[in-house]
Amino acid sequence: MPLSRRALVSTLPAAALAAMALPLRAAATGGTAGGGATGAAHTRLIENTVAAFAGTPDVGARPEVRAKLASIATTARSRLTAMDRAGQGELFQGIPLGTSDPNLVTSYQYLYEIALATRTPEGGTPSGPAGDTGVQRRVIDGLIWLHEHYYGDQSKGYYGNWFTWEIGISTHVSKMLALLADELAAYRSELAATYVASMDAYLRNGKDGDVDLDSRFHTGANLADITTNRVLQGAVLGDDARITKAVADQLTVLATIDPYDLRHGVTDGFYADGSFIQHASVAYTGSYGRGLLTRVVQTIKMLDGTGYTADDRLVRVAQGWVVDGFAPLIFEGWLMEIVKGRGVSRPATGYADTAEVVEAVVDLSAHATGADATALKGYVAYLRQTSKATLDPSAFVSPVSIAAYADILADSSIPAGDLGPAERHVAFNAMGRTVHRRPGYAFALARSSSRISRYEYMSGENLMPWFQGDGAHHLYLSGQDQTQAFGIDYLTTVPPHRLAGVTAPVETRRTVPELYGTLWYDNPERGFTSSSEAQNTYVYFPRSTHPFSGGAALGPYGVAGFVQSDDVAYAAKQSGGLPDDFVVYRDADATKSWFLFDDEIVVLAAGVGDTAGRAVTTTLDTRIAAPSDTLALTGRLRGGAPWSGTGTAPLEWLRYANATRAASVGYVFLDGPPPTVTLDTVTRSRRAVRLSNPDLPVTKQLFAVTVERSANAPHTSMAYALVPNATEHRLGAYARRPLTVLANTTRLQAVVHRGLRITALNAFTPGTHRAGRLWVRGPGSVLLRERQDGTVAIAVSDPTTERDTVPVVIRGRRMRAVAADDGVRVGRVPGGTRIVITTRHAYGRSFTATLR
């Protein structure tokens, strides 16, 4: 098993991170490329970059790489044709310039794609522009033209999205400067310095034309992008000081975020529990996290052999991200939706997202050693074996990675294996996410809080996101093609208030473009511009207002809890803090717990309703199927009679079965109002969830099981279990009551699983709470398991992150500690054993102990 990031982070204090970039500082010339080790390092860096993106002669001769090289050549020819046909105010046909920053960055992208093709290995791109200096000079002329007319005048630039000017354009230009370094020197030697000066000038969220580590724009994946660009710029200019400073700045993203000791006020990055956050409060492993992983691995490749990093800790940290941050979120090749922010609304998701992670792991394995390298390669083979979609390596960025991927798959000595056990419970409490995995399924849960955003909307993406962090879940079944069950078509066809797991008011809501006629709320006088903090806080990714969101993990079992609340925008509007024309929406009420076992996920909901008197829907589960799939809905009433079809009924259990896909899910109704079962055929356009999606109609069968509450109905509670891959016989066995609900109120929710001998609870309020053998004072999550060997294992956490200690009493015979985490004190009280857990500054993590 590779070194866990949890073990690694303790070896990487800030001083150690800084030291990783020290070796060449003393030797820095601070000026031009020339003789000595520094000039050689710059040359090596450029050579590494060209190899990474364009390939090498040896790689170019590999048959596995031909499709990639052919694609690069085909794209370049297409771009050259578009350049030949450009009209007035265009560098490429159909891409008018002057007011559109996306068009400007696209023009630079097209130039890069041409430049890339000229550096692919000779013979690797027959009939392509490989090695064509004439084509390279056309690219350089294009760079000059864009700079003279649309980029070089900073007083006219910087319209639209800040990302375009500080990262997007610079990423393409910096790579072109490296790819075309020799021809630039011979043809337009001044151009590199001219462009670098302009790129510095556009770092308006930086300081003095450089990175500002105190800027909220220069964090996480964005910081990695900017610093990677500056490394390349330094190599081209022979500016060692720029490279050394950029490497040092990038190394700061390796430090684990400690929310109680923030560096530069930054909350973006990886946390001790494997969580990744970007934009201060968005769970983002699957989008910005991928970008950060990719950039760091590319940096490893670029700096290889240059002396700019002192040892292999860069590799080890990135490897830890893969083990603790990414691997739990990838199920049979599918990267889960709960960590993608607005990216969840993009058509290419899931399996395609995993391909980027696979390339990074392939590259990491080449720089790791021993058991670490073997484990990483084994994970690549494992993903290839378990994925339900064939990974196309031609989608990799690097031809070198394609060849290395082929070598891994061809090596029979590499044992395929996941980077974690098949049965595991992962509490990403720092980002409000829970993943529960068994060989037959994976359950992914999204929660929000006063720390974590309810959703992310931005740039016309994820237009109807309102309930995605309100306990929404995805239940992935093993052996399925997840594009048929989730992904873009699930988001498109399922109404936003009927996402699986969500309690929501029944009302019509309008998207941001519908409300304001723009992609954001525009009111500069009140602090609302396209990238202002007010826009972020109240429009793009608002947090909820309640602190309770988290849970406890005990080995492969877990409990999670969540108090649903209004978001900060609604709260601010009620206090008069937002303009009159700013539209806010009120949430429904619910307090929820999830108890995650082997064969079932038990869900308790209390206080379900709406203080404003609106009708409310609680969706226990929603699933989609192709129009041609054969579905069966069967069940049994509480009186014992069989039941089938749709409607509202006092069901004891229900089974959804897709015979075409050999997939099934069972629902056991432990308590609460009669559920409603629906099955409809729905057609909607993918553009409904993202403005730039194609206007492609999607038709799906839409199954849902809900609990409906009419307007002004009293608040209610309910308890049910999700049973993945259930048979009717297995569902019938729940009549023997292996599950018992001990409490289900807004104060306390607790369950006993007799078969597993587990008692678990969430306490939400101050005071003493009692459930079975357990007593807990104040808010907390507790999971207790009585083992066959006579020991008792317990896990406790503080989901509010606000408590200094959580006291727990286990009633019965007094016990002593066999093993306990630091921060756990065990003592005796009359009639039981008292455990006091010091949760101060633990940020919701679980503390465990074994007692006898």
Q: What is the number of helices?
A: 22
**Alpha carbon gyration radius:** 28 Å
In one word, what is the shape? globular
What is the straight-line distance between the termini?
Answer: 31 Å
E-strand count:
35
Residue runs with pLDDT of under 50 for 5 or more positions = 1-35, 123-127
Name the strands of the widest sheet in spatial order: 11-12-13-14-23-20-19-16-17
The share of residues in helices is 25-40%
Kindly state the mean pLDDT as a whole number?
Answer: 94
How much of the sequence is in beta strands? 15-25%
| Structural class label | alpha+beta
Largest sheet: 9 strands, antiparallel
Element layout with pairings:
Elements: H1 5-8, H2 14-19, H3 36-54, H4 57-60, H5 66-84, H6 101-118, H7 133-151, H8 162-179, H9 181-187, H10 191-201, H11 220-237, H12 240-251, E1 269-270, E2 276-278, E3 282-283, H13 285-303, H14 313-326, E4 330-331, E5 334-335, H15 351-367, H16 370-386, H17 399-410, E6 424-428, E7 433-438, E8 441-447, E9 470-477, H18 487-493, E10 503-505, H19 512-516, H20 533-540, E11 549-554, E12 557-563, H21 568-574, E13 589-596, E14 601-609, E15 616-625, E16 631-637, E17 642-644, E18 647-648, E19 651-658, E20 663-671, E21 676-685, E22 697-709, E23 716-724, H22 728-732, E24 739-744, E25 748-753, E26 758-763, E27 768-771, E28 774-777, E29 780-786, E30 792-797, E31 805-811, E32 817-820, E33 824-829, E34 832-838, E35 847-851
Antiparallel strand pairs: 1-2, 2-3, 4-5, 6-7, 7-8, 8-9, 10-15, 11-12, 12-13, 13-14, 14-23, 15-22, 16-17, 16-19, 18-21, 19-20, 20-23, 21-22, 24-25, 25-26, 26-29, 27-28, 28-31, 29-30, 30-35, 31-34, 32-35, 33-34
